[in-house]
């Protein structure tokens, strides 16, 4: 079907915490070509300060109801405007964009690692794995207990472990210090979160020769490979994180 | 039916809506969104003789009603263009134009010779106005002596339609437009981006790795429009206007000021169909106003007392 631009209707704007919210959208056409790790470009109307679209990961897709969800963190003017939208409002999107995670096979031991808003693309990945009969371990890192959201949704897709930086819930410290990584030998690790977190996961995977894919969150203008702004420094030169990513195999990155 | 066509010399364009180089990839990226062949022409991403990786990330900063970029002519070079890109774009039913760049005059000349031999590329846009490269680019386009020299040398070898893309980062853009015309350019296009800068206050450092970059988007439109109007009144060759065009109304402003055609740039990042919507909007305007030929609009404000 290819990339397309659509005005979609918001079914629900669910505020999870002061900083996180989820927009559920009604798909106009068939969403069968959506893949985990892909993103949409969201138009933000109404302010000269929000000139460009906002790239947002696809959080969850309901192929039966033909709806999908986007998971947001209020990070600036654009996401702040979006956080105030209501059910029935229209949102202009370009989708589906970017590369996707390589969905593991049934017998592979897999860990999904997410931090903060970076948990977004991992739920859809987990659900796609479930369809292949694979139940992943899912390690989610948050700053503190007040920032923990959507854990129940992730529990439906896998076995969830938590860390918080202050130790208020789960193990204390960063995800790479979690005891899980000492106890279990994984075949594959998929990661999305702050760059410092992804780099430490990457370093763990390199050291232990574990297959690893990460999802980058580079600044971008277009989202479909023409502005060349969102480049990642890779072994194949500068590649656009919108069409050659956002999901990259660790072997491609110079981390 | 309205006549939307215009010509640069004997090269016919079926309508005046083109895309700006660096905002339209190689055209193929837009195939999912609309039939690229509907446009009057497409200007492909800036090409150099050699492979270039461009500038380090971050290379983009959003600014009010616009954006800064410091991509720095990332492209895979002319060999790759000839073998991989040209075969995919040569059959578009529109004028496919290559934007050529170099660090030295010899680079421009060699590249122009290569492009000249590509049958289905009827024109080249000589980029002497890129603000994001250390050598060449804007350095040529902001110095009248070197601007004249590079245009002259390229003109000697390039036999098809030569469009010179002008920099706004000069005291008098008219001077450079006249140099282009004197040296045999068939058209001038303007404006390239305005040199700008942004600082991330929370990090207390420049937003771009290169510190400065090129500003585009609606923020530059009034400046671009003024420059197009000045140039259109100073030269006889067709002027192609650009700078912050988001809508048909914006495009019509440039044409009323004297542009024979427009290039749609940054707008394509926000709406990949922006160019074709602008084309439709121009056509609708003409129908509503009872204007049958696009030429009636071009430079209209310069002919009447307003």
List keywords for this structure.
heterodimer, A: 255 residues, alpha/beta, Elongation Factor Tu (Ef-tu), domain 3, Rossmann fold, Dihydroorotate dehydrogenase B (pyrk subunit), domain 3, 3 domains, 7-stranded mixed beta sheet, 6-stranded antiparallel β-barrel, 15 strands, 17% helix, 35% strand, globular, B: 306 residues, TIM Barrel, 8-stranded parallel beta barrel, 4-stranded antiparallel beta sheet, 20% strand
SSE blueprint and pairings:
The complex is a heterodimer of chains A (255) and B (306).
Chain A: E1 4-15, E2 20-26, E3 39-42, E4 54-62, E5 67-73, H1 77-83, E6 90-97, E7 110-115, H2 120-131, E8 137-142, H3 151-157, E9 159-164, E10 171-172, H4 180-183, E11 188-192, H5 195-207, E12 211-215, E13 231-234, E14 237-240, E15 247-249
Helix pairs in contact in A: 2-3
Chain B: E1 6-8, E2 11-13, E3 17-19, E4 41-43, E5 60-63, E6 66-69, H1 77-89, E7 95-100, H2 105-116, E8 123-127, H3 138-141, H4 144-157, E9 161-165, H5 173-182, E10 187-190, E11 194-197, E12 199-200, E13 205-206, E14 212-216, H6 221-232, E15 239-241, H7 248-257, E16 261-264, H8 267-270, H9 274-289, H10 300-303
Parallel strand pairs in B: 3-4, 3-16, 4-7, 7-8, 8-9, 9-10, 10-15, 15-16
Antiparallel strand pairs in B: 1-2, 5-6, 6-14, 11-14, 12-13
CA gyration radius of chain A, whole angstroms: 17 Å
Arrangement of strands in the largest sheet of chain B: 3-4-7-8-9-10-15-16
Which chain pair has the greatest contact?
A: A-B, 30 and 37 residues
Question: What CATH architecture of the largest domain in chain A would you give?
Answer: 3-Layer(aba) Sandwich
Low-confidence stretches of chain B: none
Low-confidence runs of chain A (pLDDT<50, min 5 residues)? none
CATH superfamily of chain B: Aldolase class I
- Fraction in beta strands of chain A: 25-35%
Structural class, judged by helices and strands of chain B? alpha/beta
CATH overall fold name of chain B: TIM Barrel
CATH superfamily of the largest domain in chain A: Nucleotide-binding domain of ferredoxin-NADP reductase (FNR) module
Q: CA-to-CA gap between the ends of chain B?
A: 28 Å
Number of strands of chain A: 15
- The domain count of chain A comes to 3
What share of residues of chain A is helical?
10-25%
End-to-end separation of chain A in angstroms reads 34 Å
